[in-house]
Amino acid sequence: MKNKNHKGFSLVEVLMATFVFAVIMVGVAGTFSSSMFGYRNAKNVQKDLEQAQFAMNLMAKTIRTSSVSNFSSNNDLKSYDYSQGKCIEYEFDNTNKILKYGTSGAVSLDDCSFDVNNDPVAENINSLKFSFIPSSAATGSTPAVVGKVTISIEVGSGNDKTNLQTSVSLLDYTVSGL
User: How many whole angstroms separate alpha carbon 139 and alpha carbon 77?
Assistant: First the structure.
């Protein structure tokens, strides 16, 4: 008879320990990979949201001290900013999902002309809509005057979409006749 009192592990014990270790490591690696993907996705959503908030605050600040000329378009806003003494345009490029900003050195709202290649303000915007509420109705040859503008922006992708909205009252009382 052979002596079976050898110290060490049998082949079956080593194989079982290796298998259990491998299963645990695959689970840990999968969890780590999943959490890194979620972190990266959250950072992208945060970046897009910060850009959209910056753009919305910039537009609200500009609109507040402006007179708005075109309120027939939902994706475009043209205004004359009295605090800066220039025309300002915000345009949403639906194809490239970019909000663009342009200026014109005009002296009044009627003299505004804009460059087609506006500078980008924010990217990865799914939709942008301007809603205009007039403070006075159109009468005869006098056009309606915008009193309030509501800006709605949707950012994000897939299931991670976020909506931002703000309303801005224009302070152009002398121009609007209030």
Answer: 23
